[in-house]
Amino acid sequence: MQTVTPRATLGRVIAAVRTISGAAQGVGLLVAGLIAASVGAVRVLDVQASLYLLCGVLALLFLGGRRASREAAPEPAAARTTPS
């Protein structure tokens, strides 16, 4: 976001993203509260924990290969030189 947004509007864009994020959290809390009232808080937390676990496994599967390829890549010449 910071690399594609013009400097003059970067503050507004970040403020808009944070506002939308905060509003989404509020809506999510309300929805979770309504669901918890009907099916129980323990079930909601069980589903939430399962989703966190699934996201972690997916991150390992999809991002695990990136880590290995990054470590195998040669270091840029500029980073190898030490300042004198």
Can you walk through the features of this model?
- This protein has helices at residues 10-39, 41-72, 77-80.
- It is mostly helical and 84 residues long.
- The two termini are 36 Å apart.
- 0% of the residues are buried.
Strand content: under 5%
Structural class: mainly alpha
Shape: flat
Poorly predicted tracts of residues: none
Query: What's the pLDDT, averaged over the residues?
Result: 85
Q: Indicate the multimeric state.
A: single chain
- What is the straight-line distance between the termini? 36 Å
Number of helices: 3
* Helix-strand sequence: HHH
Percent in helix: over 70%
Biggest sheet layout:
none
Report the count of strand segments. 0
Which radius of gyration do the C-alpha atoms yield? 21 Å
Summarize the entry for a quick read:
The chain is mainly α and 84 residues long.
Key phrases:
mainly alpha, 3 helices, 84 residues
Furnish the topology, listing elements before pairings:
Blueprint: H1 10-39, H2 41-72, H3 77-80
Helix pairs in contact: 1-2
